[in-house]
């Protein structure tokens, strides 16, 4: 049975709405692959429309993993993903197939490839103090503080991203080290994930931002038409979820929840949802461009799909 030192897989990554799922499904018709989702939103059951989850037909056409594995009240960490993905890749390989990792949660992929060093756990006292400071000064002020102590992390966060700003400052105040240092320490120390991995990383990156922005808008409009608000209404009706659980902070769900709470006008939901999705795509591209091992395929090129198929098929036919 293959060990962690022999993990072999293809990773198809890219920003949201760049065409990853469609490319993966075409590839699955040509090569004996099983798909491992690299998406922190697809893990949740009952969140189908707002996550652009593969359709039942797509899920039935090719084996998918790490989709619908958590209730929205449960968390799923990057460390858990790395552990589960390693086991899945090894198991898929033993069955004579190729693991195809598909998604856009870059921290998950980094955890698999480079490892994550152990970082401080939650500190209720520090978190309460941060919440109090935010109430007085606002999250943009705390984002400015984060820029001073951890510019790497601050650069990929919006000044209003309360959850992530709070966590980054909590880690810094409790350890004296920036959060970004823990994301790189695993590789520097030879931590989990730094074992030899035979991976082809294909990155779908658009040449024109307008192309991606148009696709993002079209997809968000489709989500609204398919019943995103009904989906969020059903989640709210459970009674045990709230706006601060990780699942409800996913793009689209957060904006819909706030509109339903009256925190923002319902008339602004579409614009806020599209803007938040654009910001997510921007952060995803920033992560990708820091991965020198990636093979870039221009997502808006006429032959993008052919390029993906050619790269992946060539890799699949190589002997380990």
Q: How would you characterize this protein structure?
A:
The chain is of the alpha/beta class. Helices cover 52% and strands 11% of the residues. It has 14 helices and six strands. The protein has a six-stranded parallel sheet with strand order 3-2-4-1-5-6, with helices on both faces. α1 (20-30) packs across α14 and α3 crosses α4. The radius of gyration is 20 Å and the shape is globular.
Kindly list the characteristics that best describe this protein.
single chain; 320 residues; alpha/beta; 6-stranded parallel β-sheet; 14 helices; 6 strands; 52% helix; disordered N terminus
What's the layout of helices and strands?
Blueprint: E1 7-13, H1 20-30, E2 33-38, H2 56-61, E3 64-65, H3 78-94, E4 98-103, H4 106-114, H5 124-137, H6 139-149, H7 151-155, H8 162-175, H9 179-188, E5 197-205, H10 209-226, H11 228-237, H12 253-260, H13 269-289, E6 295-298, H14 304-317
Parallel strand pairs: 1-4, 1-5, 2-3, 2-4, 5-6
Helix pairs in contact: 1-14, 3-4, 5-6, 5-8, 6-8, 10-13, 11-12
Q: Mind telling me the C-alpha Rg?
A: 20 Å
What would you call the shape? globular
- As a percent range, the share of helical residues equals 40-55%
Low confidence ranges: 1-5, 186-194
Beta content comes to 5-15%
Q: Report strand order across the widest sheet.
A: 3-2-4-1-5-6
- Helices and strands, in order, run as EHEHEHEHHHHHHEHHHHEH
Q: Sketch the major β-sheet.
A: 6 strands, parallel
Number of H- or I-type helical stretches: 14
Mean pLDDT across residues: 90
- Sheet/helix structural class: alpha/beta
Strand element count? 6
Distance between the termini: 14 Å
């Amino acid at each position: 049975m293959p060990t962690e030192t022999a993990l072999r897989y293809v990773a198809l990554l890219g920003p949201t709405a760049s065409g990853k799922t469609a490319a993966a499904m075409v590839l699955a018709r040509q090569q004996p692959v099983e798909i491992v989702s690299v998406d922190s939103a697809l893990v949740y059951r009952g969140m189908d429309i707002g996550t652009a989850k593969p359709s039942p037909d797509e899920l039935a056409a090719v084996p998918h993993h790490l989709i619908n594995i958590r209730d929205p009240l449960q968390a799923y960490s990057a460390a858990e993903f790395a552990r589960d993905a390693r086991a899945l890749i090894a198991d898929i390989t033993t069955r004579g197939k190729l693991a195809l990792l598909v998604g856009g949660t870059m921290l998950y992929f980094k955890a698999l490839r480079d490892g994550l060093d152990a970082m401080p756990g939650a500190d209720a006292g520090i978190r309460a103090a941060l919440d109090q400071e935010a109430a007085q000064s606002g999250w943009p002020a705390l984002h400015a503080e984060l820029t001073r102590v951890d510019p790497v992390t601050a650069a990929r966060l919006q000044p209003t991203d309360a959850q992530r700003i709070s966590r980054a400052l909590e880690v810094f105040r409790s350890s004296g080290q920036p959060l970004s240092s823990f994301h790189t320490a695993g590789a520097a120390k030879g931590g989990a994930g730094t074992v030899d991995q035979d991976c082809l990383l294909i990155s779908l990156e658009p040449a024109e931002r307008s192309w991606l922005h148009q696709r993002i808008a079209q997809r968000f409009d489709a989500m609204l038409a398919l019943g995103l608000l009904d989906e969020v209404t059903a989640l709210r009706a459970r009674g045990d979820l709230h706006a601060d659980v990780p699942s409800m902070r996913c793009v689209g769900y957060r904006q819909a929840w706030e509109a339903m709470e009256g925190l923002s006008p319902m008339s602004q939901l579409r614009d806020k949802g599209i803007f938040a999705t654009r910001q997510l795509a921007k952060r995803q591209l920033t992560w990708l461009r820091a991965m020198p091992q990636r093979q870039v395929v221009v997502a808006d090129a006429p032959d993008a799909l052919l390029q993906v198929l050619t790269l992946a098929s060539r890799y699949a036919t190589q002997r380990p």
